[in-house]
Design brief:
Strands 1, 2, 5, 6, 7, 8, 9, 19, 20 and 21 form a 10-stranded mixed β-sheet that branches. The two termini are 20 Å apart. The chain has 547 residues and is α/β, with parallel strands linked by helices. It is 31% helix and 16% strand. The chain is built from 15 helices and 21 strands. It is globular.
Amino acid sequence: MTRVVAIGLDSADRVLIERLIAQGRLPHLARLTSLSMQVPLHSDIIGKPEEAWTSFLYGDDSYNAGYWSSLKFDPSTYRAYRQGAYRGAPFYAGTKRPSLIFDVPKSTAHGDVNGTQITSWGAHAASFPRASIPPGLIRSLDERYGPHPALENEYFDGWYQTDYIDQLSDSLVQGAAQRTKATQSLIDDHPDAGFILTVLSETHSAGHHLWHGVDSKHILAGAPTAAHAGRRLTEIYEAVDATLGSIVERLMPDTHLVVFSVHGMCPNDSDVAAGLLLPELLHRFNGGTPKLNGPDHTTWKARGYPPILPDPRRRPLAFAHDSMDTSLQGKLLQRAKAGRLLDLERALRKARGQPPGHRIPWKMADELAFETDITNLVPSHIEETATDYPNLWYQQHWPTMRAFSLPSFGEGRIRINLAGRDRDGVVPLEDYERTCCEIEQLLKDSINPRTGNSIAAHVIRTRKDDPLDPLAPDADFLITWDTAVDAVAHPTLGTIGPFPMLRMSEHNNDAFALISGPDIQPARLNERPTSELGSIILSLLEGKIPT
C-alpha cells in the first residue's frame, strides 16, 4: 500500500508563499504546487489562535472535553496557568499502519499510536515535554544533530532589536538545516512506516517577530527594522523550502504527499489590546484607580497617531510598566517573594527592561538537550503558573471585580466573577445577563483613537445557554479587535495608551494543503474546512483520492 507523508509548514502564510514562488524564491514549493491538487482550507476558530493544531489533531474531541486553550483559569483559587496539550487520541491513532510522528505542535506521545513518536524537539508552542516513544530516541537526535537552537528563544518581543532579529533568524536557518538531517535519518531508520507526519516550525517562530517586513499594510512597515526583518523572513522561508525539498527527495516515487499549513499570519492587532488595554479598562470599570496611562494623548493625536517605538535598549512592556502605579509594583513583588506567584519577580525584571545590558536573554542549545521520562507523567506535571502576562498585574483585584481580563495569546478574554461558579463571585446569577450587557456597552463605547471604531470588532458570548457549564470556555466573552489597537479612549474612564506593539503578527484562519502522488492530477479544489484535513489524510491511507 502507498506510503502517506504529511509535512506541515507551521503558520506558513499562503499569500506570502505565492508571492515568493512568483519571485523564484521557493523552487521546491513551486514544483509541488504545479504537481498537486491544491485545497484552500479555512477554519472559524475564535478565541484560540494557537490551537489550530489541536483542532487538526483531535477534531472536536478537545472542545467536547472542555479543552479550549492551553491557558486555563481555576475559579476556586483565581489562579491562571498554562496546561499541557490535550491528552486525547489523535486522528492517526486508529490506523494500524506503523507511523512516524516527529515534532508536531500540540501533539503528545500517545500510547494508542502504532509506531514512533517524538515531541517538542524544536516545535513552537509544543505544550508537551521533550519525549519520545521508544524512550531515548530524542536524546539520540540531540547527540547526533543537536537540539534546535531557536527552541525557547522565540518568545521574546524583540522585533525592534536588530541583534535579536539576526540571532533568532540565524538560529532558525540553522535549525532548519538540523531538522533536515534529523528528519532524513528518521525516514531512513523507519522504512516500514506507512504514515509519516512531521512539521517544520521555523516559519511560525519567524513570522511573529518579522512580519512587519513583508506586509506593506502593517502599521510598523516603516519601522527602522522592517526592511531587515523582511530580508531575514524571506531567508527563513527559503531555508524551510530547502528542508522540504531535501525531505521529499528521500521519499519513494509512489508516496502520497500532503504539504499543508493549518493557519497563516496577519498583522498583530491583539497583543496590546488583550494584554494591557483590556485589563486596565476593566480595572477602571470596576472603580479602580488608573494604573496605566501612557504618553500624552493630545500630543500623540496632533502627530497623527504614529505607532510608538520602544527604546531598543529595553523591552516593549517596560514602556507600560514605567507608567504603572508604584504601589502595585511593590505589591506584586511582595506576592512573588511570598511564593504566591511563581517567577513573578523574574517577569517584572523582564518588564523593566532587564536583564543587564537591556538585551533579550538567549538560552544556549546545550541547556535544552534533555528527554522527559513520560512513564508516570500526569497532567499536573506539565502545568505551569502563568506569570508573563500583563493581565496578571491586576490579579490581586480579581476576587472583588465584577469582571476581569484573563491571560490570552491575543483574543480578548473576559470572565464574569459569578456567584456559585467563582470562589468569591460578586455577581449574582440573576444579574448575569445585565452584567453581560454592561460589558458589551463598555466595549462599544471604548474607541480606537486611530480609526474611530470600537476597539472590539466582534464580541462573542460563550455561555449564553448556561453560565455554569463546566465544559464551556473559561471566558464569558471572546473579543477580536479593530485594526492596530495600541490605545483606547472611553468617554468617562479616560484614555489608556498608546503602547508599543509586542509581536508583529498573529494568526489568521487561512490555510492550505498540496496533495500529490500516484493517480492525483493537478487541480484546484473548492475551499474546505481545515478540520477536514485529518480525514483527507486518513482517506489517502485507505487508498482513496480526494475529490
